[in-house]
Amino acid sequence: MWFWRLKTSLSVSFRHIRKCTTYTKARQIWEIISSKPPENGVPLKLQGWVRSIRSQKEVLFLHLNDGSCLANLQVVGTPDMGTSDLTFGSAVHVEGRLLPSAHPGQEVELHADRLEVIGPCNAKEFPFKAKKRHTMEYTRQFPHLRARTNSFAALLRIRSQATSAIHKFFQDQGYVEVHTPVISSNDCEGAGELFQVEPASSTVLKEISEDSGKETKHFFDVPAFLTVSGQLQLEVMASALSRVYVFGPTFRAEKSLGRRHLSEFYMVEAELAFTQTQEDVMEVIEMMVKQPTEQILASCPDDLHLFYKFVSPGHREVVEKILTSKFIRMTYTEAIDILRKHSENFKFRPEWGHDLQKEHERHLVRHCGSVPVFVTDFPRDLKPFYARDNGDDKTVAAFDLLVPEVGELFGGSLREERLETLQDRLDRLGLSSSYQWYLDLRRYGSVPHGGFGMGFERYLQCILGVPHIRDVIPFPRFPHSCKM
Amino acid sequence: MWFWRLKTSLSVSFRHIRKCTTYTKARQIWEIISSKPPENGVPLKLQGWVRSIRSQKEVLFLHLNDGSCLANLQVVGTPDMGTSDLTFGSAVHVEGRLLPSAHPGQEVELHADRLEVIGPCNAKEFPFKAKKRHTMEYTRQFPHLRARTNSFAALLRIRSQATSAIHKFFQDQGYVEVHTPVISSNDCEGAGELFQVEPASSTVLKEISEDSGKETKHFFDVPAFLTVSGQLQLEVMASALSRVYVFGPTFRAEKSLGRRHLSEFYMVEAELAFTQTQEDVMEVIEMMVKQPTEQILASCPDDLHLFYKFVSPGHREVVEKILTSKFIRMTYTEAIDILRKHSENFKFRPEWGHDLQKEHERHLVRHCGSVPVFVTDFPRDLKPFYARDNGDDKTVAAFDLLVPEVGELFGGSLREERLETLQDRLDRLGLSSSYQWYLDLRRYGSVPHGGFGMGFERYLQCILGVPHIRDVIPFPRFPHSCKM
Q1: What is the reported pTM?
Q2: Least buried of A260, B91, B206, B344, by fewest C-beta within 10 Å?
Q3: For this protein, what is the EC number (chains A, B) (predicted)?
């Protein structure tokens, strides 16, 4: 009752506030363009950056972009508005009236009563030029300005929509989002090289030591690292909330400079209690690829069109195939059999017990008709300690998902929930003492569970056909480079 | 057209998948409880953890919880199902049929045909006991198990809903979410002590040096730190996309062990291009407090009720007042005038040019009737270099939002967009050379803009009335402590 009263009174006040905002502030181009019916005759203020200028005897045409969508709005002014400050890249404030446009593909244009350059732009020094398509290699040199290009702005909008679609997928299915920690004292998961964290100023350590009355070498008393995966902490939460996920940054201190590697990247990880088989987890993954992708296609048609037309022609069909196909399932052993029949094509001989190389992954995906392929039941020695033992003394219930062009996109497994089996494994690896808390999860109401992780940037590469991972993240970090 | 066809065909296949999932898998309690009309007679599987057991002559009552909601489902079995393994905290699998319940407040109960303990729990060693309310100080000692308590599970669900509500607020208003980097080479913003990042293994540095043919002391060639704020990178993006936000982790290497400080915490930051006044930014903040809070109240009534009943009685009224009041605005100078009239109450004498102390913040909020207060136009020397100069040679367009109980919840400002003014400021501070990229944003189409940051954990403290910040984050990090 209380909630209801509150809700009613608030929604009234919000409407009020929102109305005021719209009225007194400048409008965004996406609002103007998506307004149905078109707002002919409406007087408004508009602010944005100049994308093109065409001056004729009687009339001045401008294309303005404000980053709210790919489209520019055409502004029609008088020639005297064309001052020397009005250049490509400058920021302007326009007041005028919307009128029907003769321009095909745009229903309205803004007829300017007043036009003011609020932020000039030295067009000679500005690294981007009017009407020129810059390569991704070129724009990558200007991380603080590249969002001013059509393609990178489109990427950022798609990335935001993709993030939103993935959250929606999990929330709709009752998953609880958990912020697993970035700084972690787990150091022995073996997922890759770690970054270590300590205060930049040694004074802090001294203060902390004095504070506690005992000397310490570390801010947290123990060595602390940037997370390589939130999985173990997610398992903690799945052991109480059943379904959990995290969408956050993860780190690798590796020297790799490849097209699929970054030192800082985003992972989507989920953990489900009460699983029975790898299939339970793979079903969720298949939906988690298809539903958000479908939503992105529906919500960003123009931005995607730019990619499929100019960046990766033909890629739309690749995505369409992923969406309309049932993903293939095969065991690691079957995969090796397939690969061995084509041994002559490979630099690395496919052999049971060895990891799949990129060339093998590519072959398997092609072999399956360029449809995503789950490779399941990997050899125990190729997967981390927590993967559930299949009981055949050889394999574990762990799998990868391989996709066209990108290769490995997901890794997942059932987790070993049997206390004794896990204890044995940790003992053999000499890890028992640091994982008592992890064993506790198996001591107090242990349940079968499983989960997966997906590299978010690779997902974007997969749906957009962007070759280099540095072009799908706002501020790429890799060896030798940490700009801004 | 293509999208439409795709969408139709997919939504058919998703329905198919979802139906299979529901049918073959165990159900979650929130689905069962929220099902209208109640699913009387439906056979189903259920899995969860035992919260209570009551054995009578003819019948065995269990309360099961699976973390999907606060409520337990009552299970009715036969006395022979009560094996010695069936204890508080154990995990069970039940198959049975839903029937109308005589229990008040629950429409259905599960009559068990089969009950199996899948994960026993040594109730003596398990740190939580049946029907006992544990204090937050006590549960905090078991970060890997505390999600098994009602109150921390409720906190996690509310935290997830709050995250979702904040994303929804920004997405609805056309903001683009930007993942600003966690690792950053900005080192002089002065927001606090920094954590520095290097590879844990020195081998990596050696490899990188060899790789590039020149020796390097740092993985990224320059010192790199954990971010204290994504603001500067958000400004980059607002200079192209107009409205952007980030919801991510930030870090402080400070020795503080207080109730409002963590070494790793979450910040919500937004940046808006084309602002005119501080009011433009404050309006967004006021909506950003009210709309998501209203949504959380509507989506988590039971979990919130637990807090308002047991953790912070009376706090519901505090929140209701925040939601229904117009936030107060006063300048810093007015605030100092108010405080000086009550100087005798304070340990720290309020004086123009000095920072507000916690006791001052508390007084100002009480003075305004326990309504949130914006304190605007701070002295220039108290705010960072980027705050926009008011032109009075004294103050800048920067403000804080103070809220009941928590104190400072938001900080925000207009950013200096005038090239010369900013250049002068940076020159005086000796920072010009490291901020050329930041000056570039003012060289190429600069626009007036502003933004804000909110500490997410403090927001949760504010709406839940939780005194200690360590009780609103899954894995708290602070000096001497980085568990798991």
Answers
A1: 0.94
A2: B344
A3: 6.1.1.22
